[in-house]
Specification:
mainly alpha; about 200 residues; single chain
Length: about 200
């Protein structure tokens, strides 16, 4: 028999009021939304920056793309030509360093102001200076050959990252990378002329 005192809201059949709807989450502005991060170091960007010898450097850059920290590699062109190679690759600060530091290191090690002309190096009392100069030269060769690929990768990475952050068409982006990167043949010609005049002056002294 039904209890007449029982209210409908007490019925177990679900007479309770439905729950209030959950308010929608607020929409964040575009600048606050999490953006999809694109890897800027694509082969296309790096190839545009490096130029026609990209296939050679693609293998050398492989380990740096996985771990950009410094790891010694070898570059024969940089080892043999040192500052000239860095000018060729538009790394002018590195070129300046390899022009200045060897001479500074020689002066620091020898405490000598002797002008190292061919005639001076042929004197018996200056043989030790020639040996120190040889050691500094070999150290400079090893340093240039060992850091060249890493420094070039760092420059390529910086340029590619900057290009990827700009809102421009792909063609314009690659064109900019080619202008910023590539090589400087005129700089090499000027450096070769200066070197030739320096050698001529040293031989005539």
């Amino acid at each position: 028999m039904t209890d007449p005192t029982r209210h409908e809201s007490d019925s177990p059949s679900g007479g309770n009021a439905p729950p209030a709807p959950t308010p929608p989450e607020p929409t964040l502005p575009s600048w606050a939304r999490k953006q999809r991060v694109e890897d800027p170091l694509t082969d296309e960007r790096l190839a545009a920056f490096i130029g026609p010898r990209w296939r050679k450097y693609a293998k050398k850059f492989g380990q740096f793309r996985e771990d950009p920290s410094f790891t010694p590699t070898w570059n024969w062109s940089a080892a043999l030509f040192q500052a000239v190679w860095f000018i060729y690759r538009k790394m002018y600060l590195a070129a300046l360093a390899f022009m200045i530091i060897p001479g500074f290191a020689f002066r620091l090690l020898t405490q000598s102001d002797t002008n190292l002309t061919v005639a001076e190096l042929q004197k018996p009392e200056n043989e030790w200076l020639a040996l120190v100069q040889l050691g500094v030269g070999l150290s400079s060769i090893i340093a240039a050959g060992g850091v060249a690929n890493w420094l070039l990768f760092r420059r390529a990475r910086a340029a590619a990252t900057l290009a990827a952050s700009q809102i421009v068409e792909n063609e314009a982006e690659l064109s900019w990378l080619a202008r910023v990167g590539g090589v400087n043949n005129l700089g090499v010609a000027l450096a070769a002329a200066v070197f030739a005049m320096s050698m001529y002056a040293a031989l005539r002294a």
